[in-house]
Design brief:
With 401 residues, the protein is of the alpha/beta class. It has 13 helices and 23 strands. The chain folds into two domains: 178 residues, Rossmann fold, CATH 3.40.50; 209 residues, Rossmann fold, CATH 3.40.50. The mean pLDDT is 94. It binds cytidine-5'-monophosphate.
Amino acid sequence: MLRSKRILLGVTGGIAAYKTTFLTRLLIKAGAEVRIVMTESAGHFVSPLTLATLSKNPVMRDFVREEDGELDWNNHVELGLWADLMIIAPATANTLSKMASGTCDNLLMACYMSAKCPVFFAPAMDLDMFRHPATRTAIEALEGFGNVLIPAASGELASGLEGEGRMAEPEAILEQVTAWLESRLPWRGRKVLITAGPTYEPIDPVRFIGNHSSGTMGFELAREAANRGAEVVLVTGPSTLTMDHPGVTCLRVQTAREMLEAAQAHFSSAHVVIAAAAVSDYRPAEVAPEKIKKTEEALQLKLVRNPDIIHTLSQAKSGQYLVGFALETEKELEHAQAKLNRKGLDAIVLNSLRDPGAGFGGQTNKITFIDKNSEIKPFPLKSKAETACDILDEIHLRIGH
Ligand code: C5P
């Protein structure tokens, strides 16, 4: 769950701060990328050098830092956006109160207030501080903000008192963060097959018929489906894009026939199939064994039809939800709906080449989602990553949980 996750760990000034060395180690071992922001007083309890070494990143303590004699600043807005999740452990009474009231007087608080990701907080303090109505009120307020409480444990406290207020153990923090993330993966248990990119149909050993598809839309769909917990097989034609998401198995092919074969191998176990590839409709009837020399004025290539991948898959359909793409230049809706029916799809994503910013190559797309019941939903121009979210939301609405 935590592999490749970017975690911003906020450490505040309580004795439990020493435990964050173990927490950092566990997060790193789980494959997360960890950056640490400490309050000034946290530095009295745990060495920034230890945490920097364990997290493999410099620890940030102030808005301003000195690098090679130059002053630079730790950009809290960037850090807030960078993080996939933020964990504040230990969260002292002081920091809880600041979080609840929005008192933004240090780098950690500025990061907290800038963070758009889920925020977990693990209170740690002495018994009476923990029982104080101000602390209770702060915790309730934070939960009201949607922050996630990692409850304090009971036991012996650093003061010698017994009771509630001990920070949850690092293993328990890791367990609770992981369980929370898992419970919020609406596509968990779902298998998704996605085709992406162009296909290259060889003419001879050095030439091919291809197209300008970059594969971006299919890769974004794969990444987002995996972010939602799905097990994704991405079958891609030649694309310069890389896929390092642990939830995505990326199979690279060249031709339409190879793409069909790879897709067929994963079709029966898939719940959702999205055909985002720009497949070449034709291929040379024969591939010349050697490079074709220019000898004549005109050269004729005989082309034959390639299999239609999504159509072929739809004929073996056994409950899969099939989504295709339609790139149209005129009578867009009519053509897209005809394509949906002809190919046996459940839905089709239309992009019109008449819309600036839509379709091939770029980082944006403007789509209309059309389902087999003729429900038509247009979306504004968005990044392809956001478009992937919209498409998956529409599919999710139609296939339920
Ligand atoms: O027929 P057209 O190529 O316009 O249809 C586009 C849709 O069909 C896309 O979803 C594309 O991935 C899919 N397709 C396919 N196999 C082909 C051609 C298109 O799966 N040979």
